[in-house]
Specification:
Blueprint (H helix, E strand, L loop, with lengths): L15 E5 L22 H17 L3 E5 L15 E4 L2 E4 L8 H13 L3 E2 L15 E4 L2 E6 L5 H11 L3 E5 L12 E3 L4 E4 L6 H10 L2 E4 L2 H4 L7 E3 L2 E4 L4 H9 L3 E4 L3 H4 L5 H4 L1 E2 L17
Parallel strand pairs: 1-2, 4-5, 7-8, 10-11, 13-14
Antiparallel strand pairs: 1-15, 3-4, 6-7, 9-10, 12-13
Bound molecules: arginine.
């Protein structure tokens, strides 16, 4: 069930993630171009890949928490979308598709039970937010916009989290969350696939990232941008050779943790690991991880 591991001896609090186990993982509906109910995930293989991912994240020094899903919540293995969490507070996701709406409550219950405080939404039914669209780069929150998140929701995040938000309009429906085309590496570098966005989005990101690793649509289709970075380790669903050598030249270690069963639902590693400290601000740590 709930399980906490911290990086022994580390002088910094470990990076914390929340995962949801694949108890009820399946492809039972089609809400993105990757999903077809004709191609269902294999149960045993899903568990193997999920356990492998937990082990890789821990080996990289992360604190991994996890919780089970509920019957019927077949996409709950992608808890990144249930909200935007920053230290000890969170904004609950507002899913675009009714098929995923109950996940927000299930994720919020875990967060509330573990000491996080919820920041309420204004009473506006037209705001949508899925956590996969929220990606921090330096002092800015990038917010994917279009398929799953509305501009008004991005403005709300900026207000309540007190951070500048840059919206990036997504035009390629295969990459319906920003975390499929943008992966921050550190405060200067990021992997990204500009062809996924409209021209304005390309322009703002180009201005923002001093040292980009620009990838093609074909490279992004491997889910290589849907990765998690822990210190200098990048845990990736796949890593084409050109991307690997660029990352290694920059001093990163690449760890590939295949999650092919989850790709059938259109989600990779970043979707499977909710970052509990998205904005990385100190002073917001919840009691989840005791730091000596
Ligand atoms: N089947 C899920 C959906 O379409 C996949 C979620 C992927 N999540 C992400 N953060 N990219 O919503």
């Amino acid at each position: 069930m709930d399980d906490i591991v911290s990086a022994a001896g580390s002088p910094h609090p470990p990076k914390r993630f929340l995962l949801c186990s694949p108890d009820n993982f399946d492809v039972t509906f089609e809400i993105n171009p990757w999903m077809t109910t004709e191609r269902r995930p294999d149960r045993e293989k899903s568990w193997r890949e999920w356990n492998g991912l937990v082990a890789e994240l821990r080996a990289a020094g992360a604190a991994v928490h996890h919780f089970p899903s509920l019957p019927g919540l077949s996409d709950m293995v992608f808890p990144t979308d249930v909200g935007v969490v920053d230290g000890n507070r969170f904004v609950r996701g507002r899913f675009r598709h009714p098929e995923r709406r109950d996940e927000a409550a299930h994720g919020a219950t875990w967060l509330l039970e573990h000491g996080f405080t919820e920041i309420p939404w204004p009473d506006d039914p037209n705001m949508y937010l899925e956590g996969g669209d929220a990606v921090r780069f330096g002092d800015v929150l990038l917010c994917g916009n279009g398929p799953r998140t509305s501009p008004a929701a991005a403005a709300h995040l900026s207000r309540v989290l007190d951070i500048p938000v840059v919206t990036v309009p997504i035009v390629d429906p295969r990459f319906y969350h920003l975390d499929m085309s943008f992966c921050p590496l550190d405060d200067r570098r990021a992997i990204y696939a500009p062809d996924v966005w409209d021209v304005e989005g390309q322009r703002v990101v180009e201005k923002l990232v001093p040292e980009p690793l620009i990838i093609s649509i074909d490279e992004a289709l491997t889910f290589s941008a849907n990765s998690v970075v822990i210190g200098r380790t990048v845990v990736m669903p796949a890593c084409p050779p050109r991307i690997r050598s660029a990352l290694e030249d920059w001093g990163f270690t690449v760890r590939v943790s295949p999650v092919d069963e989850f790709l059938k639902a259109g989600g990779g590693i970043r979707c499977m690991a909710l970052d509990l400290d998205l904005l990385g601000r100190s002073g917001h740590l919840s009691p989840l991880v005791q730091v000596e």
